[in-house]
Amino acid sequence: MSESKQETIRYPASRIVDIAKALSGDVRVRILEALGDKTMSVSQLAEALGVAQPTVSINVQILEQAELVVSTQGANREKLCSVTCRSILLELPAKPGEGLHRTEEIHMPIGMYSHCSVQPTCGMAARDGTLLGSTDDPRVFYMPERIDAALLWFSGAGYIEYYFANPMPPGASLDELHIRAELCSEAPSFKMTWPSDITVSINGLPVGTWTSPSDFGDRKGKLTPERWRAGSEYGRLTEWRVTAGGSQVNGEAASGTTIGELGLAFNQPIRVRFEVREDAPNANGMNLFGAGFGDHPQDIVLSFVRYHEQPQA
To answer: Are 129 and 225 in contact (CB under 8 A)?
Structure first.
């Protein structure tokens, strides 16, 4: 047995779901069986299990994320795998929230909104850069194909609203709520000087306004497909944060709305709205970028943060 291998690893209650998922696949259990007390390369595992090498690689990564397998680089730059322990001990949760991570995240595709109000110029594009429906036709925002959107835009005033599930069980405390998204203003083609005031509200309460300085199109977005030639190329990754002391946008104080005022309930959706208000000083529309467009590989991310986890014994 490798000297670095532990006999038993103890996992807190917040890791139960990770470990359970890692052990729920037949291929992953067979990988652990094949490794035993040995070190094997990915190609050796594929041959021993009779499974395609890419499949082995994916399942090894899942085991690595759960810290059940560790990998090193061999002499020929091949990945060498070994197990980290011979047994595991899982602590069961004893209080609401102990089975959750310190930060739980929900990733929402930008096309999965629940309500909207848009006006031309407006439209949507898929991840490959093709248009969904026709441009400047608000009916596109009500078509089933909208779920494939990787970029959506509207000019002037309007909004896009999403319903998020609340992962926190009854009685579990929540200290912060974060929203991250890549956005910018919207102008015909693009305009580098084109400010737009984009406000986020949660359950009807405003948590802050960010003024986008531009409809960015001066260069290609890092993830934007080559076939896209319609102007807007990338946005700015922007974060709204709600705490017990108020709300911030990109770390700057923005609103007096506190997390306790949001009325969060485990059995009620959390309504998140991105809006350019009609009375905004700069009502110049919005581009919202998904995982396959712009500069950042993410959709809308809603994070639930607790300051404290159950201490390990």
So the answer is: yes
Domain boundaries, the chain: 6-90, 103-305
> What's the predicted TM-score (pTM) here?
0.73
What kind and span of H or E run contains 20?
Answer: helix 16-23
pLDDT, tens digit, for every residue of 222-251? 999 999 988 999 999 999 999 999 999 999
CATH class for the region spanning 103-305: mainly beta
Specify the CATH class of 6-90 in words.
mainly alpha
How far apart are alpha carbons 73 and 98 in whole angstroms?
36
Kindly report whether the peptide bond that precedes residue 121 is cis, defined as omega within 30 degrees of 0: yes
Please tell me the distance from the alpha carbon of residue 217 to that of residue 269, in angstroms, as a whole number.
Answer: 35
The answer to whether the CB of 98 falls within 8 A of the CB of 309 is yes
Region of 163 on the Ramachandran plot (φ > 0 left; ψ -120 to 50 alpha; else beta): beta
Rounded Cα distance, 192 and 309, in Å: 45
Q: Which residues pair with 205 in a beta bridge?
A: 202
